Prior knowledge:
Blueprint: H1 2-21, H2 29-33, H3 40-43, E1 49-50, E2 56-57, H4 66-78, H5 84-90, H6 95-107, H7 125-134, H8 137-140, H9 160-172, H10 183-189, H11 194-205
Amino acid sequence: MKFLTSFFAASLILCTTTFANADEIQGNPQNGEKKISMCIGCHGIAGYQASFPQVYKVPKIAGQGAKYIVSALNAYKKGDRRHQTMHGIAVSMSDQDMADIAAYYSALGIDESVKLSDEPTVAEPAVAALVQKGACTSCHGSNFNKPIDPSYPKIAGQNWDYLFVALKSYKSGIQPSWGRNNAVMSGVAKQFSNDELKLLAQYVGSQQGEIKTVAQPKFK
């Protein structure tokens, strides 16, 4: 446990230092709205399902943090996240494209009048133990909706089956056509069985959050 705590601390220092020193490209949400034609076919349809590496609902991205969206797109572009469709989309984008699209989606569907609880709903003891073991709130916030670094995702209310696939992908690491490469998340996911990862995903997905799917027309 001491090693795991030190590992998280070192990883967080490295990530936040690198991020703080990076040149930031400012996104323009108005320009981003003109660039989402490749996004809305999946992320603009409530309940839309992907089929690889298994059937799951695509992630909700409206209301997601802009810097996380950019981080995720870069991971698909570089191959740190293996997904053929997302890789093909990401490699076609410039850094400015990513920033603009992220700025657009981060504001989409946000309702400032809705106040979220600072704490999640009480979990069953077995699930609470899993959350504590994974130190989930140390990165994603006490309510899973206020990550400690803007390049980390909001995960409260995310489609649980997507979360499950993502966790298994971190656990497996990079495979020829799927998997994810992230030292922190890989270290977390490898502690759990797939059944435990499913319980974690279902619990986090059941929480109230800001992210959602906003239905959008296919053509802009």
